[in-house]
Amino acid sequence: MRRAFALAAILTLAAAQTAAADAPRLAVPIDCTLGETCYIEDYVDTDPGPGQRDYMCGLKSREDHRGTDFMLPSFEAMLTGVDVLAAAPGTVAATRDGMADTPVTTATREAIRGRECGNAVRVDHGEGWQTLYCHLKRGSIRVRQGDRVTTGDVLGQVGLSGMTNAPHVHLGVRKNGAIVDPFHPDDVTQCGQQTDGGLWQDRPDYTRAGLFTAGFSTAVPAFDAVQSGAARVRETTSDQPLVLYGHVFHAQPGDRLTLTAQGPEGEIFRHVLTLDDPKAQLFRAFGRKAPATGWPGGAYRGYVRLMRGATLLAARHADITVTP
To answer: 146-166, pLDDT tens digit by residue?
Structure first.
């Protein structure tokens, strides 16, 4: 019988002054190629007060975010089965399984309170060090409490359980219960300094650019409406245009934005544009008018992807329901 997580006691955000000499050296905890079939979206929040910042003082974090998120670019990728891997040798301290792979909504938040990590594995590495792997696919966990694992052993698969709306694995690192940023392990509240590699065997590259959000609308929205969230439409009628937008930050000249949308009968558009003169923040939108007979009723999903050359920097999705 699998042991449930007792997360409340260890999820205390504290400056973790670490003795890095006794720390495990971490491998990437997911079977993918960074910049091709996955990417890092969010890092540990280094801002000790309100607001958020990543370890390079950038925008890639969220308020009180306590780990590193390795994202898949689509739900379709999750369905193929992507393994979550042990980042370092250790002993399985706890597991949890059985939670549904369902995007969180305002209606389901209360039901998962205390289980925000979803289906998960916690590994003990000794000397007070532990790693936590969250949001695994239901039924995919391959290890049990007490199992010994080595670096690269399969723990489970990337899923959609717990407090998430997109498929990814959240890697949390802790020393004696305190949160550690593996990119800046000596002090979780500091930012702006590249360390010699942190706790990583081979530190993943960092880029400032990313996507705040993607959304559907029924017309090209105003930028202030994109920024505030007022532009987002989640349900529309079959005679309305479908417009997909992406909100970008810190792009470089030559970066490319791809906007695609699919409905019940397949792809409805695909548009690629080059950002020749990007600003610190911008948005781009593309869409189609409704066909003469109207859009088929049902669920539509759009993806916005930000590319630099052949490297995937970020991806966001948006959903809308069309009613006849």
So the answer is: 999 999 999 999 999 999 999
CA nearest 146: which of 86, 93, 90, 96? Answer: 93
Q: Which helix (H) or strand (E) holds 223?
A: helix 223-228
Q: Cβ neighbours of residue 237 under 8 Å, at least 6 residues apart?
A: 294, 322, 323, 324
Contact 275, 235 (CB under 8 A): no
Nearest-angstrom CA–CA distance, 141 and 209: 33
Q: Is 21's pLDDT higher than 90? A: no
Distance in angstroms between the alpha carbons of the first and the last residue of the chain: 48
Residues facing residue 275 across a β-bridge: 255
Domains of the chain as residue ranges with CATH: 20-180 (2.70.70.10), 210-323 (2.60.40.10)
- Beta 298-308 vs 255-263: how paired, if at all? antiparallel
- In DSSP notation, 106-135 reads TTTTGGGTT-TT-EEEEEEEETTEEEEEEE
CA distance 169 to 132: 10
- C-beta separation of 303 from 73 below 8 A: yes
The predicted model scores a pTM of 0.91
Please state, in angstroms and rounded to a whole number, the distance separating the CA atoms of residues 121 and 295: 43
* Rounded distance between C-alpha atoms, residue 164 and residue 182, angstroms: 22
User: CA dist 166 to 151, 158, 161, 269, Å?
Assistant: 26, 10, 9, 22
Taking only the tens place, the pLDDT of each residue in 228-277 is: 999 999 999 999 999 999 999 999 999 999 999 999 999 999 999 999 98
3-state secondary structure of 287: strand
Distance separating alpha carbons of residues 8 and 68, to the nearest angstrom: 19
**What does the block give as tokens for 245?**
């937008």
